[in-house]
Amino acid sequence: MLLHPEREYSITELATDVGVTPTAVLREVDRLTGGGILTDRRVGRSRLVKARTDTPLYRPLSDLMSVSFGPLSVLTDALLGLEGVKQAYIYGSWAARYNGEAGPPPADVDVLVVGEPDADALFDLAEEASRRLRREVNVHRVSVEAWETGRDDPFLTSVRERPLVRLNLDLESE
């Protein structure tokens, strides 16, 4: 919930997602609402919960969840095993928010992959990452040469001018 603060979840939905009983989720939701981390409201017989973003706890907890289970972790793990990837960056609104730029939560994650990975494998990777992150992952592939010398490319120029988050793939020694 901390990674999607704009979204409300029902107790049943959370139980299904986590693979536990609604009663177990209800106990944890009660603790987290009592601790000021979540907020809830009732709609008919349903109880909807979401992250509270108006407390000092939100930012550090959200950052911790993002590093542990967010795009950095998911995309790094996925790209580490993909042959042909030399570097990778997250750009766009997600990178901007990660770097402290104010704005609404990003609806998607834009990824720039530098190298020559298989296009089908990259597509499959983006689909799986989208499923895991519950937000669309858009992957754009460029050659090493284009990334290093493509100063006249409007797309690459715009990517370079905005915040970038480099994924730590430890491929530089190859």
Blueprint of the fold:
Layout: E1 9-10, H1 11-18, H2 22-34, E2 38-43, E3 46-51, H3 58-69, H4 71-80, E4 85-91, H5 93-98, E5 108-115, H6 119-133, E6 136-142, H7 144-149, H8 154-161, E7 165-166
Parallel strand pairs: 5-6
Antiparallel strand pairs: 1-3, 2-3, 4-5, 4-7
Helix pairs in contact: 1-2, 3-4, 4-6
Explain what this protein looks like in three dimensions.
The chain starts with 8 loop residues before the first strand and ends in an 8-residue tail after the last strand. It is elongated. The model has no long low-confidence stretch (mean pLDDT 91). Helix content is 45%, strand content 22%. The chain has 2 domains: 50 residues, Arc Repressor Mutant, subunit A, CATH 1.10.10; 97 residues, 2-Layer Sandwich (Beta Polymerase, domain 2), CATH 3.30.460. It contains 8 helices and 7 strands; from the N terminus they run E-H-H-E-E-H-H-E-H-E-H-E-H-H-E. The chain is of the alpha+beta class. The protein has a 4-stranded mixed β-sheet with strand order 6-5-4-7. Strand 5, helix 6 and strand 6 form a beta-alpha-beta unit. Helix 3 runs parallel beside helix 4.
